User: Which sequence fits this backbone?
């Protein structure tokens, strides 16, 4: 699993090198949540992002938001975010699996 401080440092360096790449932005938010254990900071960073209609971006945004809300001990809010995404993308297994884990049931298999 590694050193969270080192992962956060490397992510910060990556952001410094290419802060305009959306993938780097989402990686930095994920690092804020997972490496720095700063769920509120992750939510704040997500709130600063422009809205997107791109399905991958919508999914990544929603899953990160739900993870941050769970980390803030707000499981109902996290579930509501995922349910909204599931309505928009009803056939998406990733969302269904995250919801299943949240609800204590087994994830779907392919």
Assistant:
């Amino acid at each position: 699993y590694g050193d969270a401080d080192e992962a956060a440092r490397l992510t910060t360096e990556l952001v410094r090198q290419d802060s305009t790449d959306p993938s780097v932005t989402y990686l930095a938010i994920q690092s804020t949540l997972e490496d720095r254990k700063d769920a509120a900071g992750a939510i704040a960073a997500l709130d600063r992002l422009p809205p997107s209609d791109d399905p991958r971006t919508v999914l990544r945004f929603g899953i990160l938001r739900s993870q941050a809300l769970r980390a803030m001990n707000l499981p109902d809010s996290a579930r509501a975010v995922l349910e909204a995404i599931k309505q928009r993308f009803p056939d998406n297994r990733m969302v269904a699996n995250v919801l299943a884990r949240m609800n204590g049931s087994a994830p779907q298999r392919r």
Q: What stands out?
A: The chain is about 70% helix and 0% strand. Helices lie at 4-17, 22-34, 39-48, 55-71, 75-88, 93-102.
